[in-house]
Amino acid sequence: MSQTVDRALSILPLLAEGPADLGKVAERLGVHKSTALRLLRTLHEHGMVYRQSDQRYRLGARLIALAQEAMENLDIRGIAHPHLVRLNEQCGHTVHLAVYEEDEVLYIDKVESRYPVRMYSRIGKPVAITVAAVAKLLLADLPEHERRALAEQLDYPMYTSRSTPNAPAFLRELDKVREQGWATDLGGHEESINCVAAPIRGADGRVVAAMSVSAPNVVVTADELLTLLPLVRRTADAISGEYSGRTPTKGTP
């Protein structure tokens, strides 16, 4: 029975590459056409595959609908939270999780620093979109025309001398973030606060959220905070793997 299930499931990634006829399916599975046909018929009955008029098979609408429903029901905050807590235990600093919704970047989770000096950020509060590290990651992943359109309509308040001054500078920063795969805010919003951030990606590789570690200068310098970047990226990768289903549920390394 397990071999039959394994063979049936092996058909799905094959058809994800494009429609295939019975012969191709049988060849890929290494089975007789009659065996492949039985598997395809069963999958067809459940809406997992669809037989076209040219007798080739493709993925069925039911499978696509189930995948969409599963994605909509995934709770990125619930998946990420244990990893954020673990990271906070390791480094001691404030950890944030943020998403991009309706032209705003919002904090959806926060684990407080163990140090007496704490940040005033709140869950549900929009971030300073032109300077925040998490915002840079989320916006850098947008298609180019969307990035440019958004950059042109934003205001650019000079919170500090290190704030992003205008749209061209913001777009250059987003290009840099997109290329390197991580982001920083080194005194751009508050002179005394530094932040490093990494993206959380879904199964399609797109950025679905961003997480960060922030700390004031009185606790660690910007250079000291940057040494945590590998740990932050490993945590983000672990969350990405669990969210996308690429890896089993387990602790952050």
UniProtKB/TrEMBL annotation:
UniProt xrefs under Gene3D superfamilies: 3.30.450.40, Winged helix-like DNA-binding domain superfamily/Winged helix DNA-binding domain
Any Pfam family hit: IclR_C
PROSITE patterns given in the database record: HTH_ICLR, ICLR_ED
Transcription listed as a keyword: yes
Domain HTH iclR-type: start-end pairs: 2-61
Keywords: DNA-binding, Transcription, Transcription regulation
Domain called IclR-ED: residue spans: 62-245
The keyword Transcription regulation is assigned to this record: yes
InterPro entries membership: GAF-like_dom_sf, HTH_MetabolicPath_Reg, Tscrpt_reg_IclR_C, Tscrpt_reg_IclR_N, WH-like_DNA-bd_sf, WH_DNA-bd_sf
PANTHER family reported for this sequence: HELIX-TURN-HELIX TRANSCRIPTIONAL REGULATOR, ICLR FAMILY, HTH-TYPE TRANSCRIPTIONAL REPRESSOR ALLR
Protein name: IclR family transcriptional regulator
Organism: Streptomyces nigra
Lineage: Bacteria, Bacillati, Actinomycetota, Actinomycetes, Kitasatosporales
